[in-house]
Amino acid sequence: AASFVQVEAAASEMDSRGRDSPDDYGEDITESKLNDSKTGKRQRQPKLFGRSGSGRQIRRSSMGGFSFLQNNGLNKHVVYKDMPYHVMEDYMHTLVGTGWMSLLVSIVVLVFLLVTIFGFLFWLTSDHPRSWWDSYNLAIQTWCTIGYGVLAPSNHQQEFIAVLTTFFAFLFTAVCTGLAFVKFSLPYAGMVWAEHCCISKMDGKYCLLVRAAKIHREEKLVDCKFQMFVIAPRASKEGYVMLTSEELKLRNPNPLSMGPSFTLIHELGEQGAVRDLVVGNDDMLDFVIVVRLMAYSMNFQSDVASAKFY
């Protein structure tokens, strides 16, 4: 599940309060699983989420995929009008984007539903008394094109139903085979992103950090390109509010190849998009940070991509 956070970027306030201030640590919100290698004691982690220096609550929520734009405060800046969505308008995107488990369950349910319908038709058009179970088995054997020579259509109506059953069976099998091929052939980067982004000092400067790592060590990614964006509602001079994105400058955004892990670093200067959003801006409650990787996979011999929303 993706998360989006509003993080504290007021470095001067942190320095003025001191590093050991209770507000600088957030063990009640973010738990540390790191232990000190020398003492074995639990380390105190800098607070990533909590209250800013002005006393405003920094909010955090978890949303799956891109649905955060429809389920949080940013949605009030987006108006959906006369945009009905139907599955058949873009069924390819709907089917490919569906998870494997949901897709398999849907296929099994649809097959049993269609077989039940055809079995009911066989049972209604039977010339001689035939049980519902025999008619259902006749529909299954016709659907799977397997015949044992015992159950067979008994009249022209059932022969026509058998033709329809076979036609839909071949059509459904072809669609499912193509869908499985498309889903298996989609290349992916095999990346895992940190659950939260954080602010910490790097080389004496406060930076926004995001950690990424490869799921498989044998994955070979070259010609990598990392990008970081901030998405926030902004008002124009005419008073129109719209969602805008701004790219954040990263240190070493284009490594030739990626090792087991990588850290995205964005320096928080006196002037910057993230700092402007959280310091001295009481009206700004929500914004989204997007990180993206585009690379070439030597394993898939194809371009791959991965992204994370905070």
Plain-language structure description:
By secondary structure, the chain is an alpha+beta fold. The chain has two domains: 2-81 and 188-309, Immunoglobulin-like (Sandwich), CATH 2.60.40; 89-185, Helix Hairpins (Orthogonal Bundle). Helices cover 29% and strands 24% of the residues. The chain has seven helices and ten strands. It has helices at 11-17, 68-71, 91-97, 100-124, 132-143, 156-185, 273-278; strands at residues 2-5, 60-63, 191-193, 198-202, 205-214, 221-235, 241-248, 261-267, 288-297, 302-309. Strands 3, 4, 5 and 8 form a four-stranded antiparallel beta sheet that branches. Strands 7-6-9-10 form a four-stranded antiparallel beta sheet. Helix 4 runs antiparallel to helix 6. This is Inward rectifier potassium channel C-terminal domain-containing protein. Its main location: membrane. Residues 30-39 have a biased composition (Basic and acidic residues). Belongs to the inward rectifier-type potassium channel (TC 1.A.2.1) family.
Shape field: elongated
Q: Structural class of the secondary elements?
A: alpha+beta
> What's the total count of β strands?
10
Q: Under CATH, the topology of the largest domain is which?
A: Immunoglobulin-like
User: What's the helix count?
Assistant: 7
Quick one: CATH class of the largest domain?
Mainly Beta
CATH superfamily of the largest domain: G protein-activated inward rectifier potassium channel 1
Taken together, the total number of domains comes to 2
Q: What would CATH call the architecture of the largest domain?
A: Sandwich
- What oligomeric assembly is this protein in? single chain
Q: Give the SSE string.
A: EHEHHHHHEEEEEEHEE
Give the proportion of residues in helices: 25-40%
Main sheet record: 4 strands, antiparallel
GO cellular component, one term: plasma membrane
InterPro entries: Ig_E-set (IPR014756), IRK_C (IPR041647), K_chnl_dom (IPR013099), K_chnl_inward-rec_Kir (IPR016449), K_chnl_inward-rec_Kir_cyto (IPR013518)
Pfam families: Ion_trans_2, IRK_C
Keywords: Ion channel, Ion transport, Membrane, Potassium, Potassium transport, Transmembrane, Transmembrane helix, Transport, Voltage-gated channel
